[in-house]
Each structure stands twice: as C-alpha cells, then as structure tokens.
Automatic annotation (TrEMBL):
PANTHER family named in the record: PERIPLASMIC PHOSPHATE BINDING COMPONENT OF PHOSPHATE ABC TRANSPORTER, PHOSPHATE-BINDING PROTEIN PSTS
Keywords, ordered alphabetically: Signal
SUPFAM superfamilies (alphabetical): Periplasmic binding protein-like II
Domain PBP: start-end pairs: 37-273
UniProt-recorded name of the protein: Phosphate ABC transporter substrate-binding protein
Length: 303
C-alpha cells in the first residue's frame, strides 16, 4: 500500500513539473518579438490602402499578425491615449501634451517618419475647371462670400484633412453652410462623382490605390491642381511635385510606437522605414522618406 501511495505521489509530482515545463515552453514560443506575435495597429483612415499593402507583405515574410483599425484622427488619438493599442500611424507627430502623457507612464514614444502624403482636391468630371487656388479654399473656410468655392466635401469632421485645413485657415471649426462630411474617403469620391459643383477633400492614397468599391467612380472625377499661397503656378499631387516640394498640401506620415518594449510595433516601424517598406511607398505613388537603392548591372561586352 505504501509503495502504491509513493508511486502515486512521484507520478503526480513529475506530472506537475511536466505541465509547468510545457506551459513555460508554450509561453516562450508565443512571446512577442520584433518579428513575431500579434499587435493592433491604429491607422489614419486617409492612408489605409498603403498600410494594408505594407501589412500584407510584412505578414507574408514574418510570423506576425497585425490587426489594422482605421479611424479618423481624433478617434485614433482617443483610442491611443486609452491604450487600446501601443502603435499608431498619423499624419503628424505627437504634440507636447500627448508626449508628456506617455512619459508620465515612463514610456518614451518612438516616432518614425516613413512617407510624404498629399491632401487632394477632386471635382466632378462635368465641372470644367481643374484648377483651384488655396487662397480661395481658405477664404471659403473663413466664410468669405466672394470665394469661388461653393462647397467642400470631407471624409469625416474629425479627420486629419479637416484638422490640416482648419489650422491652415487659422479657424477653430468648419463653416456651418457649404460643408458636407461623411464617414470615409470612399463616400467622398462617390458623392463628388455623382454631384457637380462639389470639391472633395481626400488622401491621395485612395486615388492611387483605389478599392473595388470606388474604382468605378474614378472615371467621373478630376484631380485638381493647386496654387499655393506663395506661388503663381498650379501643381498636381504627383510624386515628382512632392519630391520637389512644389505641391502645397504635402504632409509627412509617421508611425508612433508607445508599446514600451521591443515588440512587434518596433519591428513593423523598422520595416516601414526599411528597403522593402520604402519600395512599397514608392510604388503607391507617395514619396518615400528615403529613396530605395537601385542596382545597376554594367556589362563589359554586349553579345
């Protein structure tokens, strides 16, 4: 009887040790690293198509799962500060108060610039004018009755495009009349394609990498060239004009990591700023922060 009890005790002891060992091994196996694990990424809705492409390539290369959550800028920052995710893609760096918020939690935000984007004006194809002066847009936003602009259409009242233009016009809020807003860039493109006299405000990414939902509407819109406040010429939102600094509504894109550890967010940030990520930016039509290298093969003989 004693032998049976002793055997039972020894068996139970080693069973517990084996269970703990397996559990520890599983935890180590599933532990997040810069190239492995899971992370939620908050993304400015105006650049969603570009980040979707980046994630697809990253996940196909590494054992990683990135869940993309696209929202307006204000909604993103609310979620970010509530710690629903430690990684966010924005069209501006964190301001002083936002940075201080994380530093109080002993987290130093890591900000990486990875591209230059363009806020774009679009109009219905039946509207003959394909040019717009930025001073006219600002006059309209300030309530100027003499402005040639009749209506502006935004993706979302809380979006980064609204914040950019209201700051440029030095106003606190949009006018009460002549302004339409929806919930996405897709809805703006659709609305402008179906209504004359409207000027839509979208991220250029949606025009260069359109979803199936809006591809059919692009044939019925014009992309407007813009005259800057200190320029006497009009410039289209092309990659070349972004590179030369002539397009007046250019803005930088940043990925900001506040995970507080060397996790998957750091790995994805490095990927965006690295060779492959910058090539994806270049292919998207935006301007990469660092131009990807090109290898040129020189042959001494031509056969």
């Amino acid at each position: 009887m004693k032998k049976i009890v002793l055997f039972s005790f020894v068996f139970s002891f080693f069973a517990v040790i084996f269970f703990i060992s397996c559990k520890d091994s599983s935890l180590k196996k599933d532990k997040e690293t810069i190239l492995k694990g899971k992370v939620t990424l908050l993304v400015d809705e105006t650049v969603k198509p570009l980040i979707e492409d980046q994630i697809a390539v990253f996940e196909s290369t590494y054992n990683a799962k990135i869940t993309l959550v696209a929202k307006s800028e204000k909604e993103l920052l609310q979620s970010f500060l509530k710690d629903t995710s430690g990684v966010v893609v924005l069209s501006r760096p964190l301001d002083e108060s936002e940075t201080k918020y994380f530093e109080q939690s002993k987290i130093k935000p890591r900000t990486t610039k990875f591209a230059t984007d363009a806020i774009t004006f679009i109009s219905n194809k039946k509207d003959s004018d394909t040019l717009v002066a930025l001073k006219e847009v600002i006059s309209f936003l300030k309530g100027g009755a003499d402005s040639k602009i009749k209506a502006l259409v935004f993706d979302n009242p809380n979006s980064s495009t609204v914040r950019y233009l209201t700051q440029l016009a030095k106003i606190n809020e949009l006018p009460q009349t002549g302004v339409y807003s929806f919930k996405s860039n897709e809805e703006v493109v659709k609305f402008v394609s179906e209504n004359e006299g409207m000027i839509g405000v979208v991220g250029v990414n949606w025009l260069l990498q359109p979803t199936e939902n809006i591809r059919k509407y692009l044939t019925n819109i014009n992309v407007l060239s813009v005259e800057g406040l200190d320029k006497n010429a009009y410039f289209a939102p092309t990659q070349n004009n972004l590179a030369e600094g002539t397009y007046p509504l250019a803005r930088d894109l940043f990925i900001i990591n506040c995970q507080g550890s060397s996790g998957l967010g750091m790995g994805f940030s490095s990927f965006l700023a690295g060779e492959i990520g910058q090539r994806i930016v270049l292919k998207s039509g935006m301007l990469p922060s660092t131009m990807p290298s090109r290898k040129i093969m020189i042959k001494s003989r031509i056969k």
